[in-house]
């Protein structure tokens, strides 16, 4: 029997294997109780093209709590802007095995609204 974290990691491995087969640029999400992080990773997986998180100083001023949906939406907006500056318009969404719900959904919706396609 898998525990909660092992089950999430198994789901994440399956998703990442499919994205690697597609050779697509990936928007990877990492979520903790206090913060949320997003990275746009090159198709080869070796280079980070853009990153945003609630740990960044200018985002911390904008949001009071890094662990809620409003903060995730701010990170989604920021990652879309940085990806556009790096010349990336389309990505594969890697939710790291988490449900597409709550903070993950808020980040994805905000990124889509600001021009990122996935």
- The portion of residues assigned to helices is 40-55%
Q: Give me the Rg, rounded.
A: 14 Å
Task: Note the run of SSEs as H and E.
Answer: HEEEHHEH
Q: Low-confidence segments, ≥5 residues, pLDDT <50?
A: none
Oligomeric form of this entry? single chain
Number of structurally distinct domains = 1
Q: Describe the biggest sheet? A: 4 strands, mixed
User: What is the correct CATH architecture?
Assistant: 2-Layer Sandwich
Separation, N- and C-terminal Cα atoms: 33 Å
**Secondary structure tally, helices:** 4
The average pLDDT is: 95
Q: In percent terms, what proportion of residues is strand?
A: 15-25%
Widest sheet, order of strands = 3-2-1-4
CATH class: Alpha Beta
Shape: globular
Structural class: alpha+beta
Query: In CATH terms, what is the fold-level topology?
Result: Nucleotidyltransferase, domain 5
User: How many distinct beta strands?
Assistant: 4
Describe the structure.
The protein has one domain: 2-Layer Sandwich (Nucleotidyltransferase, domain 5), CATH 3.30.420. With 118 residues, it is an alpha+beta fold. 45% of the residues lie in helices and 18% in strands.
């Amino acid at each position: 029997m898998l525990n909660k974290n092992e089950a999430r990691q198994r789901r994440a491995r399956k998703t990442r294997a499919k994205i690697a087969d597609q050779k697509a640029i990936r928007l990877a999400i990492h979520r903790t109780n206090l913060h949320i992080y997003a990275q746009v990773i090159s198709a080869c997986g070796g280079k980070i093209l853009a990153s945003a998180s609630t740990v960044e100083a200018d985002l911390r001023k904008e949001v009071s709590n890094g662990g809620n949906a409003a903060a995730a939406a701010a990170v989604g907006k920021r990652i879309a802007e940085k990806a556009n500056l790096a010349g990336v318009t389309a990505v594969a969404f890697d939710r790291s095995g988490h449900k597409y719900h709550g903070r993950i959904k808020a980040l994805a919706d905000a990124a889509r609204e600001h021009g990122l396609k996935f």
